[in-house]
Amino acid sequence: MNRPSDLPAQALTAVALTVNGRQVELHCAPAKRLAYALREELGLTGTKLGCDAGDCGACTVLVDGRQACACLMPVAQAAGRTVVTVEGLAPDGRLNRLQRAFLRHGAAQCGICTPGMLMAATDLLTRNPTPTEAEVRDALGGVLCRCTGYRKIIDAVLATATAESDAAPPAAGNAVGHRLPRLDGPAKVTGTEAFGADRAPAGALFLRVIRSPHPRARFTIGDLAAFCRSHPAVEGVITAADVPENSFAVFPTPKDQPVLADGHVRFRGEAVLGLIGEETAIRAIPAEAVPIAWEVLPALETPEQALAATGDWLHEFAPENVLCRGRVVRGDAHGALAGAAFTAEGEFRTGHVEHAYIEPEAGYAEVFDDGGRTRVRVWACTQTPYMDKEEVARVLRLAPADVQVVPSAIGGGFGGKLDVSVQPLLAVAAWKMRRPVRMVYTRAESMVSTTKRHPARIRARLGCDRNGHLVAVDFAGDFNTGAYASWGSTVANRVPVHASGPYAVPNVRALTRAVFTHNAIAGAFRGFGVPQACIATEALMDDLAMQCGQDRLAFRLRNALRAGGVTATGQTLTASVGMARCLEVLAPAWQGALDAVGVRNQAAAGTPLRHGAGIACMWYGIGNTVIANPSTMTIGLNRRGRFMLYNGAQEIGQGTYTIMPQIAADALGVPVTLIDQIHGDTDRTEDAGKSSASRQTFVSGNAARLAALDLRRRLCEMIGLTPAAALELDGTTLVGREAGVVRRLEIGALATDARGDVASGRGTFNPPTVPLDADGQGVPYATYGFAAQIAEVEVDVELGTVRVLHVHAAHDVGRAINPTLVEGQIHGGIAQGLGLALMEEYVSGRTDNLHDYLIPTAGDIPPITTFIVEDPEPIAPYGAKGVGEPALIATAPAIFGAIRHATGVRVDTAPCTPDRLLRLLRGGAR
Amino acid sequence: MMRARYLQPGSLPEALAALDGGGTILAGGTDFHPARDARAAAEDIIDITRIPELRRIEAGTHAVRIGATVTWSDVAAASLPPAFDGLKAAAREVGGAQIQNVGTVAGNLCNASPAADGVPALLALDARVELASRAGTRSISLAQFLLGPRRTARAPDELVTAVIVPAWPPGARGSFLKLGHRRYLVISIAMVSAVVACDATGRVTRAAVAVGACSAVARRLPALEARLPGMPGTAAPESVQASDLDVLAPIDDVRGTAEYRIEAARVLVRRALAQVVA
Ligand SMILES: Cc1cc2nc3c(=O)[nH]c(=O)nc-3n(C[C@H](O)[C@H](O)[C@H](O)COP(=O)(O)OP(=O)(O)OC[C@H]3O[C@@H](n4cnc5c(N)ncnc54)[C@H](O)[C@@H]3O)c2cc1C
Ligand code: FES
Ligand code: FES
């Protein structure tokens, strides 16, 4: 047995172990943790690091057959033992049964948790090939997934015990609507997918950022030269003085956030200074050793304080600390409420919510010579490579063309990677050092420095007439936008449009403010404020239904927007308004849930358990609120007889890498298996905008369809047929058929363009909208998604705990391009909605890790029944609208409605933690 | 700075010799590593996982001896008397499977977190802690061992070699209830363990109840324990009084308010008792 006794813990030693069936000898410090040894010494980057603390399970490997966190095990403990990583599951390149089941079921979305999930499941299946669902949950309970809601992972593990097999790929013309396994799936289940931390040029330096420990302070940096002399590991330092243009932001104005703070910090965790050198040595330097003198100032901790702080503005451009006001006014809400038969009102609050993607931000930057031109390349996890390119160019004062952004695979985003994080820091460091520089945020750094969901305080009043028709909504919401603008204006503008819910309401007054405070920056998070608003208004819908003595579903159905209906912004919805249909398909499940509640409550008589069912509706405008958000796609046919889709629609786990080819294939009329892709490299793809606002399927999908149709037209022309002809490829022969005529064209020797294509097509789409006037009247979105969800819960009234037993979700997605991916979005959204409802609250400085900040585990997500409603949108590709954000919006209000049904108390604060609920049950205030 | 070494003793005497020179003990590392950020340890690391005799559970007639490197998974899989059902339930509630596979019972006690799940279960079992150093071996009660948050009675040169549970009457049963915000991987808001023995007529002969995460160190409930003997087991749950919890001193934190903790603890005590007398 190998015993590196008496060896310095950090000195190199030889450690022999078996990895994936191979005897290996590692030369590293015995105390080095296995995860790092696997990744750095053996290049086995399939083992991921999400927290470095045992909290996420992304690093799970098998040690002597049993699952263990590789981030917690010193390499010396693995000596003489057998380690299996994800790379060991398909040693000959052939996927095993479990991996294939993961692909079939869509069990991997972003894929960052997938290696850990596979290893945990392998441990179980080797000992127990036919586990129960409870056994699967127990085995997977230590691996967090933020994307899938776990259901498809559990299904995939259970499916390994069945005879289920892979389906054939769809035939030409049948790709849309097919449950095509995700095309980037194999890389995700074998561990070869490269995420932000998985790649860097040889010899790259490491950048560590020193951050403010104070929410508000002035600071001066001391003698850095002396500091560097006493810390020889420091090869370079960057400060605000090294940033050519020290400001960025997602919108053109205000560019309010510095890359590195310049003498003044506005939130805890703000970047102040960067140390550059070898990773271990740089990380070992105590932050206190860096010469920074702080003058701590009193912080404005809440919107109430910030609004009352006369003359004390976070930013000069925002007097009163208000970043932005949103306003939608139609009719006379106050007048209508005065005359309403029934009214309901309330005040509701939600807290900071962290995206908690399992991949902390990471990437590298390098300066390179491109045929005599000095350019900067940034590799990073991002939802928006094109914005990154502009931001990096701006910060370095370069032309955008001098910057190349190559997005890594992204281990979850949910809006949190819609702002730049590592990108400008890396670019500034690499530019200064003229050497490649990499960085990986620690979990704490990721949590403290990146954006959050806006905490909201909402006051709303709803009124209806005697028959239960809504007459007015009066809504006022303050959203705590934190220290910098980020996406605050988007929230302030989107919420009023949606504040009256998916209902026909003649009188609406909806006002919002995004308020600056010295809190964490609030930015984009799945739903841009609409989930918070929905919690308030759906609770009041229940109030009105009860006052009218109507069933909660029937009351909503009575008021549902329908085709021909007019929204609060005066927009007439002409088509694809599936709200009523969602409620209709849910009606049997609703009756079933109400019946089940009765039966369960009877069975639970004499116990502290109370059952309830709740329902909530939502609508969501697809794409930006009025602001242009075009996408462009190109596609070519090359001499090998294969199509190349230049797909700039960033894959973030939602499936753009799979959906775009499905759409393009059907537009061309060829099998999807003929399409290859270049994805997201800003040098090689055109701008397809951001993966935000649930826009990619609708907007980029349209661009992909138009590009494919454009190519089709050209090919038909080349072959001498009209665009109505059917095309196919017989090797390198293009075959066209039309009205009995068959034409053939050998393409193997045709001239090509610079990209190697013999012909190509291009498509651009920007959703048609009409700017909103001062009262918010106009056409903010070209189309909307609709949904209704039912939650069934069990409440323990002695402990205040809530268990969600089942969720039924009906979503009008226009058309499901890929039903498996649509369900995956819905499941994942529900899981995040459940977290928002019951457990998630970020408190800076106290929950900057994944054991104090709690997201749902495999044991917290109930069975989910999904109903996909397809009310096609005429201007969408094959009718398809988005589902990414709609997925979570109705969940929290449905759960709160169920809690109320079970206990009689209206939940007014999210999350509804056990202590809060117990206080409510005892009749206490918030 | 002294060059810290990584030591992997292969026997107990070797380990005690190493410890004599100072150093930090490392077992499963599930508390050790998260507490250490990215900084290199300045002390010798004494990894005790290569000492075969420490990885044993020995169930004798007078006591059950749980060796220092016995993991939570080992406990969950062991065949032990029903008095240990609470400890086994706790074993299945610590973190997730990958934490249970390497995390040790002894490590949980030595780490002395107020929210350590093993502590109430072992306090209720009347467990003792065996400590060894070059100078000799001693055994103290778990209550004496735990001094405060992150503080124990272990001397720097001592190794916890085992946790020893003196035998309970054969019919004694144990339970453990954990309250957290989610199903897995969760630090307890409060947890309760009860062990109760009854005679042939169903009357309580001996009872122990411990509450965790509601005071700096988990506490037994002496007033309640004194009341239960002689009482029909089935009456035990309803006999719980608010004043029984006066020994607790919970705090407000992100997981819950002090007020909530007390209320929840009382409910859990009642339910933990109901499980063992049913
Ligand atoms: C993700 C995660 C979830 C967790 N969940 C829970 C939970 O739900 N409930 C819970 O109670 N705990 C939990 N823990 C904490 C931890 O897993 C347990 O406390 C575990 O039992 C510690 O054992 P270990 O062997 O890993 O200890 P180590 O980390 O190796 O050691 C812990 C401490 O004890 C000392 N030590 C260890 N063994 C000895 C010995 N024999 N003699 C003297 N000193 C010793 C070490 O020096 C160190 O200070 C969790 C930890 C993680 C990372
Ligand atoms: S990285 Fe090991 S558990 Fe998160
Ligand atoms: S697929 Fe699980 S975290 Fe993304």
What is the general shape of chain A? globular
Strand line-up of the largest beta sheet of chain B: 4-5-10-6-7
Q: What is the percent of helical residues of chain A?
A: 25-40%
Mean of all residue-level pLDDT scores of chain A: 97
Which cofactor or ligand species appear? Answer: flavin-adenine dinucleotide, FE2/S2 (inorganic) cluster
Strand content of chain B: 15-25%
Low-confidence stretches of chain A are: 1-6
Biggest sheet statistics of chain A: 7 strands, mixed
Q: Which radius of gyration of chain B do the C-alpha atoms yield?
A: 19 Å
- Report how far the terminal alpha carbons of chain A are from each other: 60 Å
Mean pLDDT of chain B: 95
Structural class of chain A: alpha+beta
Low-pLDDT windows of residues of chain B: none
> Count of DSSP E strands of chain A?
35
Structural class of chain B: alpha+beta
Strands in their spatial order, largest beta sheet of chain A: 9-11-7-19-16-17-18
Structural account:
The complex is a heterodimer of chains A (926) and B (278). By secondary structure, chain A is α+β, with helices and mostly antiparallel strands. Helices cover 28% and strands 25% of the residues of chain A. In chain A, strands 9-11-7-19-16-17-18 form a seven-stranded mixed β-sheet, with helices on both faces. A six-stranded mixed β-sheet of chain A has the order 13-23-22-21-14-35. Chain A is globular and about 80 Å long. The relative contact order of chain A is 0.11. Mean pLDDT of chain A is 97; it is low at 1-6. In chain B, a hairpin with a 2-residue loop joins strand 6 and strand 7 (136-141). The longest helix of chain B has 20 residues, at 258-277. Chain B is built from nine helices and 14 strands. The radius of gyration of chain B is 19 Å and the shape is globular. Chain B has helices spanning 12-20, 72-77, 85-93, 97-100, 105-111, 118-124, 142-145, 222-227, 258-277; strands at residues 5-7, 24-26, 45-47, 57-59, 63-67, 128-133, 136-141, 146-148, 151-152, 159-166, 173-179, 190-198, 204-212, 219-220. Helix content of chain B is 26%, strand content 25%. Chains A and B meet through strand 1, strand 5, helix 5, helix 9 and helix 24 of A and strand 1, helix 4 and helix 9 of B. Strand 1 (7-8) of chain A pairs antiparallel with strand 1 (5-7) of chain B.
